Amino acid sequence: MQINELSNNPKLVIGVKQTTKVLASGHAELVFIAKDAEQHVVRRIIQLATEQEIEIIFIDTMKELGRACNIDVGAATAVIEK
What we know:
Elements: E1 12-14, H1 16-25, E2 28-34, H2 39-51, E3 55-59, H3 62-68, E4 77-81
Parallel strand pairs: 2-3
Antiparallel strand pairs: 1-4, 2-4
Helix pairs in contact: 1-2
Domain Ribosomal protein eL8/eL30/eS12/Gadd45: 6-79
InterPro entries: Ribosomal_eL30-like_sf, Ribosomal_eL8/eL30/eS12/Gad45
Organism: Fusibacter ferrireducens
């Protein structure tokens, strides 16, 4: 999946709390994490995704990830649900 396809995906979930919930429920297919997000914020998401062998795609900035998700603010994480 390309980053420019994100906003068109109906199973896109944006944000740290929501991404964590999707991962915890076992319904994650693909995780996006901004490289400039605070490490203490995304550490748990990286851990969960790694444990479940979910692919993580790192995006350069939160602003770029937010734009790809079609929101006006930056996003630290996003996830595609199964």
